[in-house]
Amino acid sequence: MAVTPRILLVIDIQQEYTAAGRAFHIAGIEPSLTNAKTLIDAARVAGVPVWHVQHQQEKGVFARGGEHTDPIAGFEPQGDEPVFIKDMYNSFSSPELVKALEATKPEDITVIGYGTPLCCLSTIVDGMHRGYSFTLVEDAVAAKATKQTSEEEMHRSAVNVISEYARVTRTEDVLQEFKG
Fold first, then answer.
1. Taking a C-beta distance cutoff of 8 angstroms, is the pair 113, 119 a contact?
2. If 71 and its partner were Cys, which of 1, 4, 75, 134 is the partner (CB 3.0–4.6 Å)?
3. What is the pLDDT of residue 1?
4. How far is CA 142 from CA 11, 99, 171, in A?
């Protein structure tokens, strides 16, 4: 893989998040999906590499081969876009992703996907400690609710924490950056 100034890292845009009644279902996911799709399409046009990460593990939620581990329709990788499989929240649990990033040495890793307080946060914190710079597109990510906290509260809290480790921006700003 060639050295690149920026990659778009698409984390876990999988059916688990859209399947009602599932453990990681996000009821309010649609606006972030719309923004994520817009960003992926714009990155492809601009020549920004799109890298996909999928959560797959031996059993339980995100079980390898399970009915909800596939990408959400319309978010399948295209052409030679790589797919990295991780078995924990942190995308750096994929040895292949670690090797690809070491070979590519991107100046910025722009993160979209799910969920803000788990996979996005743990990936950004670990990656920052490894020397990478990140941008989180706050309106192209979302969080599931917990028993005590709403989706929006979980999302906002995670974004506030992530802002200590990464640049936080919105879809329209990244679209302008892709054009410029």
1. yes
2. 75
3. 46
4. 11, 27, 13
* Pairwise CA distance, residues 16 & 69, whole Å: 6
Measure the CA–CA gap between 82 and 14, rounded to whole angstroms.
Answer: 15
Contact 171, 39 (CB under 8 A): yes
CA distance readout (Å), 81 to 16, 53, 108, 163:
22, 11, 17, 28
The Cα–Cα gap between 41 and 78 comes to 11
Give the whole-angstrom CA distance, residue 157 versus residue 150.
11
Q: 104: buried, middle or exposed (CB in 10 Å: 19+, 13-18, 0-12)? A: middle
**Residue ranges of the chain with pLDDT lower than 50?**
1
Identity at 15, one-letter amino acid code: Q
Q: What's the pLDDT at 59?
A: 85
Please name the residue ranges forming H helices in 24-170: 30-46, 95-104, 121-129, 151-162
The alpha-carbon radius of gyration of the chain (Å, integer) is 15
The single-letter code of the amino acid at 101 is L
Helix (H) or strand (E) run with residue 172 in it: helix 171-179
